[in-house]
Amino acid sequence: MTRHAHRMVRHTLARRTIEVLSAKRITPHMQRIVFGGDELRGFTSEASDDHVKLFFPNGQGELVLPTLGPNGPEFPAGALPSPMRDYTPRYFDASRLELTIDFVVHGDGPASTWAEQAAPGQRIALAGPRGSFLMAEDFDHVVLVGDETALPAIGRRLDELPEHAHAIALIEIPEKADRLPLGSRAEFDVTWLERDGVDAAQSDLLERALRELPELSGDTFYWIATESRRVRAIRKYLAEECGVPKEWIRATGYWQAGGTDDDED
């Protein structure tokens, strides 16, 4: 059997209308929203860093959704499109048809603004996930590196690790109050890194913490998600300075400095 063999599972793309069941601020910068609805029947999310695309009401309070044309998604001519952003499913309860998504709230952008005022009964639309990246589970260690936008995926990954695994999580957050309880069947260690006012795009807390990790024996898989420029620098450090094989790194830019909103929370 091939060691460290990842798998990609493709899903049939479906679009669903979902309804807010509850909304709760769980930290100063994180809003947890539970969605429900019969259209969640058949929804599947097999990997901790799956992405679903959420469609929010436009400036006129309407959901204007695209259809899939020959050149990709196409919105109705003359209509104001619904803003759309990618998010990680945090929990899905198939028996109750309830989907939980954690939103980073940062004061601007259509997704953050909507999440702050979300209330039961409001509706948005969801599409995806298109596929799930199933990480090989025979690594000796898993190192999870991310900022608050990656916290839902990191928390879910820890939840889903098998008992034999060992994980190290380096998590950068705005302030100490943004820490969340994390658990796992696996052995794991978490280092919280608080920016305390430093701009997220200019911080180097994750980079320094990664360099300061003690040498790990055996094979290690690295999962990284933060601002796009920082992700590229971390990937380069691991590949070029540490000699980590590219197949042992999964690095994704969850947002871009100077953008109008988070690409992925």
From TrEMBL:
Pfam families: FAD_binding_9, SIP. Residues 13-136 form the FAD-binding FR-type domain. InterPro entries: FAD-bd_FR_type, FNR_nucleotide-bd, Riboflavin_synthase-like_b-brl, SIP_FAD-bd, SIP_fam, SIP_rossman_dom. GO terms for molecular function: oxidoreductase activity. PROSITE patterns: FAD_FR (PS51384). CDD domains: siderophore_interacting. Belongs to the SIP oxidoreductase family. This is Siderophore-interacting protein.
